[in-house]
Amino acid sequence: MHGGPRTVVVDDSRFMRGLITDILESGGVEVVAEAADGEEAVRVVAETDPDVVTMDVEMPRMNGIEAVERLMAERPTPVLMLSAYTDEGAEETFAALDAGAVDFFAKPGGEVSMGVSRLESQLVETVRSVAGADLSGAGERPAEVAAGSASTAADVAPNTTVVIGSSTGGPDAVERVLCDLPPDADIRVLVVQHMPEAFTGRFAARLDAACGLDVREATDGARVGRGEVLVARGGLHMEVSNYRDGRLRVRLVDEDRGQNVRPSVNVTMESAAREVDDPLVGVVLTGMGDDGSDGVNAIADAGGFVVAQDEETSVVYGMPKRAAATGRVGAVLPLADVAGGIVRGAP
């Protein structure tokens, strides 16, 4: 007997459909139907009205991106993309996220079936999380966000450092916040998005193209100064190793550090709290789990200010909920107001 979300599994490989179905059903998720391509997926979703869809990207007749577009237009349903662990897979995955998919699960390279099998519990957890996602406004960019923040560079305290953490639903949320920050302000930003290595470079490039700030993927020893953003590299923790005169330096750490994700928001926030002696702001955006709650405490202990995204605008209200539960968050705000909260809250 199943008590989990009702799920449709979409993949052009019969073997993969069976494998994913077995994994999900072993984890208590009910698979109500399978589909071999995007056209069949759209029809099956209309017939079964599932809570969530797992969607392959590359399929005949109608690929996963086109299927997501159709679903969002005709029958909005939370979609988890199953993506190839390649640069091309990253490009296609971001296109699917733009189309309205909630999140993605990266298929490791090599023997795909073995890789997915090793990550059974993570796949089940992600499907459950995506099933509960809020799709209100899916595919839309609110006018007040697209128009940019009313804040100006003069409103930002000198030498302000911002650490942003996010997970499920985070790529779009991070973009919106960065695009709303005054690009000429005396601000430097570290972004920790739960995302595998093959995807973070492409994510940084997309942010750089969309926003006025200078965004790049972090490298070991990279420095970040005024108007610059570093995105943590997938698979490695990003620590602040040094801070002096408004410029900070990071190191990339290939160690567990007691975290169940890598990169971890906690690791970056805690190191920033230790090293940065100028204004410091922590931000926790949409995502599942509790990563960031320890970092929030560290930033607050260091005299910094913390902003958390509110439940209504979060795709998944996990990380910001746990952050707010610490009692150390200075402001809980809708996504459109987070940039303004950063500017106003900088000590």
Helix content: 25-40%
Calculate the terminal CA-CA distance, rounded to whole Å: 53 Å
Mean pLDDT, rounded to whole units? 90
Strand content: 15-25%
Catalytic activity: [protein]-L-glutamate 5-O-methyl ester + H2O = L-glutamyl-[protein] + methanol + H(+); L-glutaminyl-[protein] + H2O = L-glutamyl-[protein] + NH4(+)
Main location: cytoplasm
Protein name: Protein-glutamate methylesterase/protein-glutamine glutaminase
GO cellular component, one term: cytoplasm
Main attributes of the structure:
347 residues, Protein-glutamate methylesterase/protein-glutamine glutaminase, protein-glutamate methylesterase activity, CheB-like, 5-stranded parallel beta sheet, alpha/beta, 2 domains, 15 strands, single chain, cytoplasm, 7-stranded parallel beta sheet, Rossmann fold, Sig_transdc_resp-reg_Me-estase
Would you give an account of this structure?
With 347 residues, this protein is of the alpha/beta class. It has 2 domains: 6-131, 3-Layer(aba) Sandwich (Rossmann fold), CATH 3.40.50; 145-345, Rossmann fold. The protein is 39% helix and 23% strand. It is built from 13 helices and 15 strands. The protein has helices spanning 14-26, 38-48, 64-74, 87-99, 112-118, 120-131, 143-146, 170-180, 197-210, 265-275, 293-301, 319-325, 335-345, and strands at residues 6-10, 30-35, 52-56, 79-84, 103-107, 160-166, 187-193, 214-217, 223-224, 228-231, 237-244, 247-253, 280-284, 305-309, 331-333. It has a 7-stranded parallel sheet with strand order 8-10-7-6-13-14-15, sandwiched between helices. Strands 2-1-3-4-5 form a 5-stranded parallel sheet, with helices on both faces. A 3-stranded antiparallel sheet has the order 9-12-11. Helix 2 packs parallel to helix 3. The longest helix is centred in the middle third of the chain and has 14 residues, at 197-210. Residues 138-149 have low confidence and may be disordered.
